[in-house]
């Protein structure tokens, strides 16, 4: 299940207001988002889990610094990025860690969030199976096998759904440009 920006913001607001249940739901919902974020950037499986835990702790400890007028995911991924840089420094990795999504998160909170919402709206125009396959493989960073497992369908079905979905989105986008 994919959690929306608005739901994350609602849980964060509830947690800030003292609702322990909302705060627990927020932290629980962040785990797959953070794993997907790190899976694309960190090769060490144990390192990924350590980073996820560090970010969850930071979200809990620093929750008072969250500005509710800004997108929650931008705040979250800024924390995740800084934790990742700290991790790379600890393990001695000196490769550049910047990529397009990191730059969007750190330099354009509203733009990045708006782009995520636009992508979400576009995916909502597709049949549910195609949208789920694209979200799993392209946005959540799952392999075809992992996506097939999660969606309880075959790997070839995932590949076909992604292909057809992307083709349909390309046609829609081209149609919108004209």
Automatic annotation (TrEMBL):
Domain RNA polymerase sigma factor 70 region 4 type: 118-169
Listed PANTHER family: ECF RNA POLYMERASE SIGMA FACTOR SIGD, RNA POLYMERASE ECF-TYPE SIGMA FACTO
Keywords: DNA-binding, Sigma factor, Transcription, Transcription regulation
Family classification: Belongs to the sigma-70 factor family. ECF subfamily.
Protein name, entry field: RNA polymerase sigma-70 factor (ECF subfamily)
Gene3D superfamilies in the cross-refs: 1.10.1740.10, Winged helix-like DNA-binding domain superfamily/Winged helix DNA-binding domain
BP-aspect Gene Ontology terms: DNA-templated transcription initiation
Keyword check for DNA-binding: yes
GO molecular function, one term: sigma factor activity
Pfam annotation, one family: Sigma70_r2
Organism annotation: Sphingobium fontiphilum
InterPro entries named in the record: RNA_pol_sigma-70-like, RNA_pol_sigma-70_dom, RNA_pol_sigma70_r2, RNA_pol_sigma70_r4_t2, RNA_pol_sigma_r2, RNA_pol_sigma_r3/r4-like, WH-like_DNA-bd_sf
Domain RNA polymerase sigma-70 region: from-to ranges: 27-93
